[in-house]
Amino acid sequence: MINSKDIARIAGVSRSTVSRVINNYPNVSPETKEKVLKAIKEYNYVPHASARMLRGKSSKTIGLVIVDLKRNSDIHKVYDNVYFGPFTTAVIDFANQLGYNVLVITVYKPKDYKKVREVFYNKTINGAIFIGVKNDDPEIKNLIEAGLKTAVIDQEIRDDENDPFNKSIIVNMDNVTGAYEATKYLISLGHREIAHITGDMEKLSGFARLEGYKKALKEAGIPFKSSLVVKGDFVEESGYKAAYKLFKKAKPTAIFASNDQMAIGAMQALEEMGYKIPDDVSIIGFDDITISRYLKPALTTMSVSLLQMAELAVENLIRSVEEEIAIKAKFVVPVKLVERESCKRIEIKEENEKKEYLLSR
């Protein structure tokens, strides 16, 4: 039985070159690739791992790449993030309905992208959905340029034809509008000292929600105060620490947290500091995760459909795979306010040209 060593001898190349051709690595000249493929075809050589590729058949598998990169040594595993779980389940369900399997890959460090490159080059996956990525990630850019069909969740949409992400499917939630509406809601309740706990500022959802917060303040004629903005990173612990940091230097009457997990962490810190929600401090989150409705008080938040985002990503990626084209599709999923129990109206009383904030009874 002929093997890769025989193919290498016949084609006049090294065995590693045969492997690179079989696995579709880009660093092989067209002439060399043609010689190797000619020998493979002539001698009917089909290695097991690449049989489907050489027969021109799809693996019927897409990748779901969950990225959770951190600068420090405190690595947050996927199971710590209540956002990734429902999205992963939805992706698997929608892909299965369309006859595709899903290979889940986790990226905790930059070197972990090697796993994605390997399953792409050896044709284990036909395309990939990326979630949790930092904005403008060069690793994903390189994969897109190499030909991987991709759908990216939470990525800035730019009007630049040279941007590799314009060759990709992008699915975002309406971050700016959602943050704007959350802040505007607090303003409508009479709040003027409104704090913001940001998300990871290297991600679109982090800096876009800060933009929406600022927009609402500006529209209402409320000065932006940097002292009322504390950085978080979308996990509960960061919301907890942010609340303590915030109340050491300010006394806001309301907080807009960039996601529900940080809002939950902040609520715990406020309780420990002796503040009652919403009597002393109102708080609003973003995402509407399941636990939010069962908190005491139940968390007011901005709701977005992860199911819709997953469906858009899966359906368009599979269409891109089956039609063998790079679909350039951009989607923005709307968000809506869900009023619960964590926000309260306050009255504004003018006295001696100063504003006093009195809690309504």
TrEMBL record:
Residue ranges annotated for the HTH lacI-type domain, each copy included: 2-56
Native species: Caldanaerobacter subterraneus
GO MF: DNA-binding transcription factor activity; transcription cis-regulatory region binding
Pfam family, one: LacI
Highest taxon of source: Bacteria
Domain HTH cro/C1-type: 5-46
Keywords of this entry: DNA-binding, Transcription, Transcription regulation
SMART domains the record matches: HTH_LACI (SM00354)
Name of the protein: LacI family transcriptional regulator
Keyword Transferase set for record: no
